[in-house]
Amino acid sequence: MNTDNDLEKLLQNLPFFIQQYLHQHPYKNELIEIVLDLGRRPEARFSHGPEYLSQKIISWQDLDYITQRISKFSSENRAGIERTLHRISCIRNRQFLINGLTCRVGRAVFGTISVIRDLLESDKSILILGRPGVGKTTIIREIGRVLADEMEKRVIIIDTSNEIAGDSDIPHFGIGRARRMQVSQTEFQHQVMIEAVENHMPQVIIIDEIGTDLEVLAARTIAEKGVKLVGTTHGNCLENLIKNPSLAELIGGIKYVTLSDEEAKRRGTQKSILERKAYPTFELVIEINNSNSWTIHEDVAHSVDLFLRNNSGKEQIRQILLPEKVQIKCQNYYPYSTFLMKSIKNSNQNLIPSERIWPEINEFNSKYSAQLSSKNLIIYSYSISNNFIKEAMSKVNIRFTLTTDIKKASLIIGLKKHLINNLRLKKLAQQKNIPIYSLNQLSIYQFMKLIQTFS
């Protein structure tokens, strides 16, 4: 994969003391964004984590220096740098003065979609799911280039915030021969989507961040006209989309159906069940777990039906092991509640999809939680908020108490990356014979897995 990020064009618009530090930084090519808040030290966020850039705090003069050298901010508080993909977002105070900037590095990554190249050759509409910052915009930019340049399709990109093709009337070369239609205001995106179909005869339309009911309706209208869609939206997995009332229409929509007594008995279900309303607007869904691992649902209608029936199926995982090597494998797919109960009952079985991060727990095995209900845990939390622990523990019937006195605790729970550096805490825990439990990340699912060790 080749990357073009025009990083120098971003750095030359920053104050000199920040430029100097970043020019010498060994990981500057892994830079994600720079955060500049009034009265605070400047901070850079890399793929491996954040770090401060200077002991000097940001002043009004520093912010003015940057804002005078870039384009004007839109009604969305976003600006850009001419002929680049970088995005500058501002935070304003109550007097509407800028007191904070987020400078996000924009990159055109050529070859990033090699893992799904075969899927682009189908006539299916593709929806890309992922949490903010995972790289969805970078992916659809490269999809647009490949479809236009290499597959010679008539491609139009609906560029709402100029993130896909840059902040200029001349699109960035990262989109190739694809055409770009700009959107004056976010609320008009659905109108521009329809206009593109009616006026410019596209074979493919690319839309970033579908989020409103009108945009969902416009996408469905475009699909019914026979135009292929490539879109993105926020979410970790297909289940998130099913449970989102505004976005569920993208995968067919959900409705309640009342069955007769005989039919409910035949199916072994309740009389009121959920079913898919219509054929999905997007026939293929790609979940971006991280930059090197993608989950593919090649038949979205079938996947949604399995989830609503609480049945297991197969899902496809595609991983980039080396720059030129792609691994494709299939494994069992479980609707979330079924998956959780199976993983608790069979903790030695590998039921967890690789690199999958589950955002919440909706159900918990009632039989298992009953085994713990008689215990009273006294928890000392280290580097984890008490609200997070209360939220997680509220999902199971376990008596617990949070304490700030480590000597009274029956166990210590914290994030591994913080616990590993606190030798004093570990020494005190050994002296008092208090067990320490660590989490790799702040995830309710990981917390639930940890509770298993208490039984």
TrEMBL record:
Residues 122-261 form the AAA+ ATPase domain. InterPro entries: AAA+_ATPase (IPR003593), P-loop_NTPase (IPR027417), PTPase_dom (IPR058670), Spore_III_AA_AAA+_ATPase (IPR045735). One of its GO terms (molecular function) is ATP binding. Keywords: ATP-binding, Chloroplast, Nucleotide-binding, Plastid. The keyword Nucleotide-binding applies. The keyword DNA damage does not apply. Coiled coil: none annotated. Pfam families: PTPase, Spore_III_AA. SMART domains: AAA (SM00382). PANTHER family: KINASE-RELATED, P-LOOP CONTAINING NUCLEOSIDE TRIPHOSPHATE HYDROLASES SUPERFAMILY PROTEIN. This is Uncharacterized protein ycf45. The lineage of its organism: Eukaryota, Sar, Alveolata, Dinophyceae, Peridiniales.
